[in-house]
Design goal:
31% of the residues lie in helices and 19% in strands. The chain is of the alpha/beta class. The chain has one domain: Alpha/Beta hydrolase fold, catalytic domain (Rossmann fold, 3-Layer(aba) Sandwich), CATH 3.40.50.1820. The protein is globular and about 55 Å long. The relative contact order is 0.15. InterPro entries: AB_hydrolase_fold, AXE1_dom, CE7.
């Protein structure tokens, strides 16, 4: 377990439960997902035009949950030709899809390969859209996935998204211009919670970096979170009054605290201590539970925006140093 900085203070015990079959559930889930494409060799890749002359972009698709095709953008510096580069796999926040090529250039501009995952069934909350439906369910939709399939862990939405993110790591490791031993997972908010799950499920990542993570110590932060997306859970339980125990059992399988206990890769965290969307207690509990090395940047006067570009600069420097070691 990580030692917290003094300014975070002592924490109460985490209230999230850990299902007895947690490891078996995820091992079975990933075995099933990988059975559709055992070697992750059927990744499709098409070069695309975009306005940034110093970067190259490709439209990528690979097999995610259930063998479904999941979209992503792959980018890298144009000057690096085809040499294998470290790769950052980034998971977007809630409501955002992969957007447009060129929209998120910072990682590739810093000299690394960058895979920006599309988020199934999302993309119409903000940003510039997404292209991956959830379970062939029609076009991606506005935010509203927190309770989708929540009556059982097998049908829960975030089981599918976490699998997509793990399979994105599998896919980039098979690309000839990616260094398979230097893959880092990155995410903010929703992406941070999913990145922690990937870190717990993939044992040999080079690193993981998160900010203001969602889906951490969910039973505790649910009590004080304001607005979306936790409000979706409130509305659901206000109607389905008898399902509280079932709902929180499902959520335990995706909770970042449980996944952090299994994660070994070096990690960098950013926390906004005035965050009311994803209250910082959740991120602090996941940080405290994290089994590998940790570093943390604390933004005492910021909310869910966290450190914004202050933190992104720190992340890029940290990633480059980690990959050079």
């Amino acid at each position: 377990m990580a030692t917290l900085p003094p300014q975070l203070g002592p924490l109460p015990p985490s209230v999230v439960s850990e299902p007895d079959d947690f490891d078996r559930f995820w091992a079975r889930t990933l075995d099933e997902a990988r059975s559709f494409d055992p070697e992750a060799r059927t990744t499709e890749r098409v070069a695309v035009e975009q306005p940034l002359s110093e970067l190259r972009y490709w439209d990528i698709s690979f097999r995610g949950f259930g063998g479904q095709r999941v979209k992503a953008w792959l980018s890298r510096p144009a000057r690096c030709d085809d040499e294998p580069l470290p790769c950052v796999v980034q998971i977007p926040g809630y409501g955002r899809g992969r957007g447009l090529p060129g929209e998120n250039p910072h990682v590739a501009a810093a000299g690394m390969a960058h895979l920006l995952l599309d988020v199934r069934g999302q993309g119409c909350g903000y940003g510039s859209g997404g292209d991956t439906p959830d379970l062939h369910d029609g076009a991606p939709e506005a935010p509203g996935v927190v309770t989708r399939g929540i009556s059982a862990p097998e049908t829960y939405y975030y089981r599918r998204l976490i699998v997509d993110a793990v399979r994105a790591v599998d896919a980039v490791r098979k690309l000839p211009d990616v260094d398979a031993e230097r893959v880092i997972v990155m995410g903010n908010s929703q992406g941070g919670g999913v990145a922690l799950a990937v870190a717990g499920l993939v044992s040999d990542l080079r690193g993981v970096t998160v900010s203001v993570p969602f889906l951490c110590d969910i039973p505790a932060v649910y009590q004080s979170a304001q607005g979306e997306p936790y409000a979706e859970l409130v509305r659901y339980l206000s109607v389905r009054r008898a399902e509280r125990e079932v709902v929180f059992r499902t959520l335990a399988y995706v909770d970042g605290v449980n996944h952090a206990r299994r994660a070994q890769a070096p990690s960098l965290w950013g926390l906004g201590l005035r965050d009311t969307c994803c209250p910082p207690l959740g991120g602090q509990q996941a940080l405290a539970a994290y089994a590998g090395p940790t570093e943390v940047e604390i933004y005492s006067d910021n909310g869910h925006e966290g450190g914004e570009f202050y933190y992104l600069r720190r992340q890029l420097t940290w990633i480059r140093e980690l990959c050079a070691a």
